[in-house]
Design goal:
Elements (H helix, E strand, L loop, with lengths): L7 H4 L3 E7 L4 H17 L4 E8 L4 H10 L6 E4 L19 E5 L5 E5 L5 H13 L2
Parallel strand pairs: 1-2, 2-3
Antiparallel strand pairs: 1-4, 4-5
């Protein structure tokens, strides 16, 4: 996690989608292609994606997951779940997968504590994109 202030994406007033996942998580595997597709479709509109891989004891498990599902957006490796605790009140450390959409002002615009389909994820992001 970045230290010393808000992440650069928040300072630049970008929409940020944070997804918490684990390679061991079957629902995470189901939603991974949908997240990648929406990322590809929205990144030119200024939407940034960040994954947080949690509870994978090995980085190789996380890297293999990203390779297998063609994930190209960045992820942080958080094997103990300690970094998730920094999101207190935002992301439940026990709810995996979970997704949070942060608007251009750095506010939580939407959250989901389940695996998302492409359509469900777009329903969370599209209203924030329309805010301009």
């Amino acid at each position: 996690m970045p230290y010393g202030g808000p992440p650069r994406s928040l300072r630049l007033r970008k929409i940020v989608v944070i997804n918490v996942w684990g390679s061991w998580c079957a629902p995470c595997r189901a939603e991974a292609p949908h997240l990648q597709k929406v990322y590809e479709d929205t990144r030119k509109q200024g939407v940034q994606f960040l994954g947080i891989n949690t509870r994978d004891a090995s980085k190789s498990n996380a890297r293999n997951f990203e390779k297998d599902y063609g994930i190209t957006y960045p992820s942080l490796w958080d094997p103990t779940g300690r970094e998730l605790l920094r999101f207190e009140g935002t992301v439940s450390p026990s709810a995996i997968p979970s997704t949070v959409v942060i608007d251009r002002q750095g506010r939580i615009a939407a959250r989901a504590l389940k695996a998302l389909s492409e359509a469900e994820l777009r329903k969370l992001i599209d209203p924030v994109l329309k805010e301009g």
